[in-house]
Specification:
The protein is an alpha/beta fold. The chain is about 45% helix and about 20% strand. The protein folds into two domains: about 240 residues, Glycogen Phosphorylase B (Rossmann fold); about 210 residues, Glycogen Phosphorylase B (Rossmann fold, 3-Layer(aba) Sandwich). The strands form two sheets. Strands 3-4-2-1-5-6-7-10-9-8 form a ten-stranded mixed sheet, sandwiched between helices. Helix 1 links the parallel strand 1 and strand 2. Helix 8 crosses helix 12 and helix 10 crosses helix 14. It binds adenosine-5'-diphosphate-glucose. The site of adenosine-5'-diphosphate-glucose has 20 residues, from helix 1 and helix 13. Pfam families: Glyco_transf_20 (PF00982).
Length: about 450
């Protein structure tokens, strides 16, 4: 079996315990230890004239961590990746900023990564690049003469051509994409969006099965919806029953139902509309006041980007307004927490929540929706309220699907979920759980790598 090389912005260190590292990090680490391999990424450090990467080994896996020049790192991460590509791919053109200096910095970081990675590569390695921070990496590696298999997985949505064309560097970015052998996207809609751009704008040709020809390049674009480690979540959720943490949670609820939301504090996650919908639910369904508590867990993210600071202030104000308006001396309607939790604690909270509320304005997949489903008690499961604009909505058809731009519609869905009979809840949960159990993080990983291994054979 060929050696696997993974490239991602952040690298999960071998010392990070499974309970803390995300499901994706754990699955990638497993794939690396099975095949033997290398995980390459940013060290998290900046310095002028950065030296070659620090390389160390743990078991069958080597890790290589590259420092970056501070100005390049800013232009790459806060600039082009998160100031341009993130809003673009989440359909937020009003928040998109494009500066040539950022685009150049983004390319410089990718070229730098390619130069430091190349000496660590063997010709028959399989290289798997993760996410929008590194779209030009394959092109840079090819320039340096690497001819082996390179795959790319895009964790966020791929926008339709009308939106994608707003990006001044759209043509260059798709030329970069064409240097991969396999491009993985989250959903069939994403695949259609990219293929439509390629055939209509870039004058490429499309073959059945996602085969693409663009200039002298041949590659495939395929949907691989990402999953979770369902078994681990089921186990954690079951193990939480009766433990001290669960007791504390139940005591604090004093018999009231719980609705839970878990999202990074990010404008793609639709948090202000979710809060507004909860306020509207309390206003228009006064019979539920004092009977349901909502807990929104929203760890801080990208705090160096201005839009995220403004969002944080907005949410603090909205949470304060809802609690000011509806709280009783013995009931706080909205608990709002900015801290991270261990997977076992999240599983306990999910299991005790009668509603899971996942209402992003756009989301590549949304793993929280799947985790919530996996953590439920099959006899008395909660209801998932899910945005139709999350990739997960394709698979989780047992959820109550909502339009996150329709605040009153979401409030009505909360009411419907809260009053849903147990038979319907079980039926909907079973539909969702079948998908969560079948399409796991492991099958996702194996599926992508199996196709990438055969990529070179595809066009004969
Ligand atoms: P994210 O935008 O980060 O991921 P999501 O898929 O929901 O969104 O994953 C978040 C993960 O972080 C979940 O596993 C969740 O449990 C965890 N998490 C969130 N809050 C936490 C907290 N307070 N403590 C501990 N853990 C917490 C991007 C894309 C998504 C895509 C994923 C994977 O934006 O659309 O589903 O990558 O491809």
């Amino acid at each position: 079996m060929a050696r696997l090389v993974i490239v991602s912005n952040r690298v999960a260190s071998p010392r990070e315990r499974a309970a803390k590292a995300g499901g994706l990090a754990v699955a990638l680490r497993e794939a690396l230890s099975q095949r033997g391999g290398l995980w390459f990424g940013w060290s998290g450090e900046t310095q002028v004239d950065p030296p070659p990467p620090k390389v160390f080994r743990s078991g069958r896996v080597s890790y290589a961590l590259q420092d970056l020049d501070p100005e390049d790192q800013r232009a790459h991460y806060a600039g082009y990746a998160n100031g341009t590509l993130w809003p673009l791919c989440h359909y937020r053109l009003g928040l998109l900023s494009f500066r040539r200096a950022d685009w150049e910095g983004y390319r410089r970081v990718n070229a730098h990564f390619a130069r430091s990675l190349l000496p660590l590569l063997k010709p028959d390695d399989i290289v798997w690049v993760h996410d929008y921070h590194f779209i030009p990496l394959a092109a840079e590696l090819r320039k340096l003469g690497f001819e082996g298999r390179i795959g790319y997985f895009h964790h966020i949505p791929w926008p339709t051509p009308e939106v994608f064309l707003s990006l001044p560097s759209h043509a260059a970015l798709v030329r970069d994409i064409s240097h991969y052998d396999l491009v993985g996207l989250q959903t069939e809609d994403d695949v259609r969006a990219l293929l439509t751009y390629i055939s209509s704008e870039a004058r490429g040709w499309i073959a059945p099965g996602g085969g693409v020809g663009l200039k002298d390049r041949r590659f495939r674009v395929v949907a691989y919806p990402i999953g979770i480690d369902a078994e681990a979540f089921v186990k954690d959720a079951r193990a939480s029953v009766g433990k001290d943490e669960e007791k504390r949670l139940k005591e604090s609820l004093a018999g009231r139902a719980l609705a839970v939301g878990v999202d990074r504090l990010d404008y793609s996650k639709g948090l202000p509309s979710k809060f507004a919908a909860f306020g509207d639910f309390l206003a228009r369904y006064p019979e539920h006041r004092s009977k349901m508590t909502m807990m929104q867990i929203a760890p801080l993210s990208r705090a160096e980007v201005t839009e995220y600071q403004a969002l944080r202030r907005e949410l603090e104000e909205l949470a304060g307004a809802i609690n000011g308006e509806y709280a009783e001396f013995d009931w706080v309607p909205l608990r709002y927490l900015n801290r991270p939790f261990q997977r076992a604690t999240l599983a306990a909270i999910y299991r005790n929540a009668r509603l899971g509320i996942v209402t992003p304005l756009r989301d590549g997949m949304n793993l929280v929706a799947k985790e919530y489903v996996a953590a439920q008690d099959p006899e008395n499961p909660g209801v998932l309220v899910l945005s139709r604009f999350a990739g997960a909505a394709d698979e989780l058809t047992g959820a109550l699907l909502v339009n996150p731009y329709d605040v009153e519609g979401m409030a009505d869905a909360f009411h419907r979920a809260f009053t849903m009979p147990v038979e319907e809840r079980r039926e909907r949960w079973r539909t969702n759980m079948d998908k969560v159990e079948t399409n796991t993080i492991h099958s996702w990983c194996e599926g992508f790598l199996a196709d990438l291994s055969q990529a070179a054979d595809h066009f004969g």
